[in-house]
Amino acid sequence: MVGPGFSRGLLLLAWLYAASAAAQIVNVQALFDENTGPGRSAAVDLGMDWRTGSIQLFSLRGALLGQWRTENHTWLGVVRGEYAFAAEERIVSKVMEHLRYRYRLTERLSGEAFVQHEFDEFRRIQFRALLGAGPRLKVLTDKKATLVVGLALMLEHERIRRDSEPDAGQFRTDPRLSSYILGRLEFMENVALVETLYVQPRVTNPTDIRLLNDTIFEVKPNARLSVGIGFNLTFDNDPPLAVPKLDTQLRTTVGIRL
């Protein structure tokens, strides 16, 4: 049975998918539907772009999100993939799966555990797996504003694809800290700003750090329609060779409530 979180999940999936250029850090916290009670929800996102003529382009993308919630337990699962061809040459090829469990200890304090797998051909990631756990604290819970902080210790295993670069085929397993701050500000009943900041230093070498800043401005013209404008910035101090350290993306999204 699909619960009331389904409609909101459609918009959240659009945000998640639009942020996929970041690749290294996924803003999963923004995908949780905090406003639903116990129950299940699911959402599917499919998209295609096919252009001919002066621009030869074919792009196919899809994502699936599911959430199951009880009074103290929450499960969130996300699967997504994207493939794109331009002038008969593949320019995008990636897939990601994420599963997260949250247990509420008190009204403000929760514990989280998660696993994640990624493949991203054009960031030269043949295989990336994460396993982590840590606390999550609601610092501010107000009708107009919320502020949440979290910290997790995660184990990361990353393998670089085999190609012509000098680091081809290399792999490593490292512990990282994953800390985040999530804030939401309601300007009025139908206008909100959502800000998420992730910081992920490697425990054995803190200068090897990854950052994600995700800002979303959301407007709801009516009960069924949501429009979002977002800016995404990611930084990886030690990416694979030939992969840029900094990625930015400005995006717009439209969500329809069913």
Descriptive account of the structure:
- 27% of the residues are buried.
- The longest helix has 14 residues, at 5-18.
- Residues 1-23 have low confidence and may be disordered.
- The radius of gyration is 19 Å and the shape is globular.
- A twelve-stranded antiparallel beta sheet has the order 1-2-3-4-5-6-7-8-9-10-11-12, with helices on one face.
- It is mainly beta.
- Strand 2 (57-69) and strand 3 (73-86) form a beta hairpin.
- The chain starts with a helix and ends with a strand.
- 5% of the residues lie in helices and 66% in strands.
Quick structural gist:
The chain is mainly β and 258 residues long. Helix content is 5%, strand content 66%.
Oligomerization state = single chain
Task: Kindly estimate the percentage of residues that lie in beta strands according to DSSP.
Answer: over 45%
- Rounded mean pLDDT is 83
Q: What can be said about the biggest beta sheet?
A: 12 strands, antiparallel
List SSEs in N-to-C order: HEEEEEEEEEEEE
Question: Which features would summarize this protein structure in a list?
Answer:
single chain, 258 residues, mainly beta, 1 helix, 12 strands, 5% helix
Describe the secondary-structure layout.
Blueprint: H1 5-18, E1 39-51, E2 57-69, E3 73-86, E4 89-104, E5 109-120, E6 125-141, E7 145-160, E8 171-188, E9 191-202, E10 205-219, E11 225-236, E12 246-256
Antiparallel strand pairs: 1-2, 2-3, 3-4, 4-5, 5-6, 6-7, 7-8, 8-9, 9-10, 10-11, 11-12
